[in-house]
Amino acid sequence: MNQTIYQQFTERKKQGKKSFAVLIDPDKVDIDAIAQLVQLGQEAKVDYFYVGGSLVISSHLDECIQQIKSSCDIPVILFPGSPSQVSRYADALLYLSLISGRNPELLIGQHVISAPFVKKSGLEIMPTGYMVIDGGAPTTVSYISNATPIPADKNEIAMCTAMAGEMLGMKLIYMDAGSGAKRPITEQMIEKVAKHINIPLIIGGGITEPEKAYLNCKAGADVIVVGNAIEKDLNLIKEISDAVHSVDTVKIV
Question: How do residues 161-175 score in pLDDT, each as one tens digit?
């Protein structure tokens, strides 16, 4: 019996193995760019492709995912910015609840609207506690959600928010500084959160170099997500993938 995507996440966490996901925004890529990303992803042994964005104003979400699926066996996971960003061609869906904010629409309101369609899609649904961390610049997420990010230096708030998300039944915690963040999430905050939850921890936003990805993994991140930096420098796919996977060899105490 094949493992579900979530079982892969939890099994890799148990084994101390770190994962690298390349985030593809359908608004920012064309067919040729997707083909190049997939090829580089395969060569670099990328673990997952995340597909989605805060807006996704283009109409080729399905086409984008189908092209990835036809070219490789790397799982495709939807990272939706709205209920409309659902495609049955993906493997799984991060069902995001913005637990760092106080906007009821993004805690449960949009989920109520999307539930029938999401259920019908046949996707593997992964309930995810989504936490926006202040990355030093306004983000589309904070603007659209009308929610204030968690301050970058408030490690205890992040820790308690993640703990609450886990106890409420979230299967994953995703901490995000936002696309193009000036400041990525600190290792201190990641470590604080990682030590107090048992579910996989995903980190994204502002990661522009392999060393930062490595340090995030050492601090307790289970999955590193990079999108914006790779759009600017495709060489980062292999460099960051190598950095993330090098932590696999470190003995977990």
Answer: 999 999 999 999 999
More confident residue, 144 or 196: 196
Q: Which residue has the tokens 């408030």?
A: 154
Average pLDDT rounded to a whole number, residues 239-248: 95
Asked whether the beta carbons of 230 and 193 are under 8 A apart, the reply is no
| 102: its two tokens | 């106080």
In terms of phi and psi (left: phi > 0; alpha: psi -120 to 50; beta: otherwise), the region of 75 is beta
Strands (E), the chain: 19-24, 48-51, 76-78, 92-98, 124-132, 172-176, 201-204, 223-226
Domain boundaries defined on the chain: 5-245
pTM over 0.90: yes
Please determine, looking at this structure, whether the domain spanning 5-245 carries the CATH number 3.20.20.390.
yes
Q: Write down the pLDDT at residue 141.
A: 76
Residues 6+ away with beta carbon under 8 Å from 94: 50, 77, 78, 79, 80, 126, 128, 130, 172, 174
